[in-house]
Write a structure and sequence with these properties.
Elements lengths: L1 H14 L7 H14 L8 H21 L8 H8 L1
Helix pairs in contact: 1-2, 1-3, 1-4, 3-4
């Protein structure tokens, strides 16, 4: 659970790097995605790690879409991908 909260917080920090008019959309999108996966078994490391990698990869895609340097996601990469 602690790692999931760190990932969620990291994603929200990245949302602050986006243009101001896009932030509400992506903040809501992130919350909805984390809420949708709350039924994942906390003991299933494989499923959790897959969701964390997906969160990181999607974050990178969004950052690239808005021409934000990927290096701002280095902390999230450490959390998600070890």
């Amino acid at each position: 659970m602690q790692k999931a909260l760190k990932v969620y917080g990291g994603v929200l920090r990245l949302v602050r790097q986006l243009p101001a008019d896009t932030r509400p959309y992506y903040a809501k999108f992130a919350r909805e995605n984390f809420v949708n996966f709350r039924e994942v078994d906390a003991n299933d490391d494989t499923a959790l790690n897959e969701h964390f990698r997906r969160a990181y990869n999607h974050s990178i895609w969004v950052l690239n879409k808005y021409s934000v340097n990927e290096s701002v996601a280095d902390e999230l990469k450490k959390i998600c991908c070890g």
